[in-house]
Amino acid sequence: MEILAFGVQADEKPLLEKAFAGHHDVRCLDVFLDEDTAPIAAGYEVVSTSVNADLNHRVLQTLAAGGTQLIAQRSTGFNNIDLDVAERLGLTVARVSSYSPYSVAEFAWTLAMAVNRRIVRASNRTRDFDFRLDGLMGRDLRGRTVGVLGTGRIGEAFTRIAHGFGMKLLGWDAAENPACVELGMKYVDKRRLLAEADLISLHVPLVEATHHLVDAAALKAMKDDAILVNSSRGGLVDTEALVAELRAGRFTGVGLDVYEAEAGLFFLDKSLEAVEDDTLARLVTFPNVVVTSHQAYYTVEAVTQIIDTTLQNVLDHTAGRRSENVLVPRVS
C-alpha cells in the first residue's frame, strides 16, 4: 500500500522514507492538506498530515469520498481536525500521543534566553561590525521566579531546567505533577502565577477551555518586566492584546514559536510576498520579541519518534488494532 504524506519538510523526508521502507511505500508532498490539495488524496487509503493542515468538514468530505480510511497526523495536537465530522464520515483519525519532551522544553528555554540576553539584536549588530553593548543588558535568572502553565511531560522537562538555574518554581495545572513538587514547585492559581512570575512559559494543549488562556486580563496581570514564552500552541495567547501591551512598552521579552494565525504562513517561504497579516507584521517589529516558525519539536530525536509512532499507527490500522493514539472512532 502507498501512503500519501502531506506537508513533509525536506529534513523530514529521508527519515519518513527510511522508517516506512519494508512496510509501505510513502509518497511525500511538501504542500499542506487543505481544500485545494485534498483531491490529490483520491485513491489513497491512508493519508498522513502535519499540524498545519486544515482538516475542516469540506476537506474531510473530499478525503472520505476519495476512499481515505485513516488520517495519521504527525503531531500531538489535533485542534486542526474536525473530529465530529470525521467520526460521522467513518474516518479513523490517529495522532502521536507523545514524543521527546526535551525538544520543546529546551527550545522554550532557548527563546527565553534569547530575549533575556538580546541575542538576536547582538547577532545582527556584530554582522555589521557594531560591537556596542548599549541596549543588550539582560538579567540573571538565578533566584527569580518562573511560572509554568501546564506541568505535563514538557512542562516537567522545562521545570527541571528552571530548577537547574536555581529559580523559584510556580506551577498551574488541573492536577499537580509529583515530580515538579519534588523539585520544589508550588502550585498556585493562575492570577497569582501571572502576578509573581518573572518568566512565564506555556505548556498546555489548545482546547476550548485554554483558547486565549493568556488574554488581555492575564497580560495586564503580569509584571511589566516579565518574559513570556509560548512554544505550545498559538491560540493560547490573544495576539492582538499582546501587541497592545507591547506597544505600551511592557515586558522584557516575548518568545513565540507559535502564532494563532500561523496556518498558511509557517513552514512556507513568504519572503517575496506582501505581508497581509497586520498583527504578525506588527509583532515582529518589536525589538524585544523573537518569533520562530513552530520549530520547537524539530530535533532528530523528536521527529524520529513522531515518524515511528505514525508508522505504528498505520500498521495498527491495517491489522485492525486500536491504540491510545486513535482519536476517532471514540471509545464509549
Q: Can you describe what's shown?
A:
The protein is an alpha/beta fold. It folds into 2 domains: 2-99 and 299-328, NAD(P)-binding Rossmann-like Domain (Rossmann fold); 101-291, 3-Layer(aba) Sandwich (Rossmann fold). 34% of the residues lie in helices and 15% in strands. It has 12 helices and 13 strands. It has helices spanning 13-20, 57-65, 83-88, 101-116, 119-127, 153-165, 178-182, 190-196, 216-221, 239-247, 278-283, 300-319, and strands at 2-5, 25-28, 46-49, 70-73, 92-94, 145-149, 168-172, 186-187, 199-202, 227-230, 253-256, 289-291, 326-328. Strands 8-7-6-9-10-11-12 form a 7-stranded parallel sheet, sandwiched between helices. The protein has a 6-stranded mixed sheet with strand order 2-1-3-4-5-13. β3, α2 and β4 form a beta-alpha-beta unit. α1 packs parallel to α12 (300-319). The protein is globular. The mean pLDDT is 96. Residues 6-327 form the D-isomer specific 2-hydroxyacid dehydrogenase catalytic domain. One of its GO terms (molecular function) is D-lactate dehydrogenase (NAD+) activity. It comes from Streptomyces litmocidini.
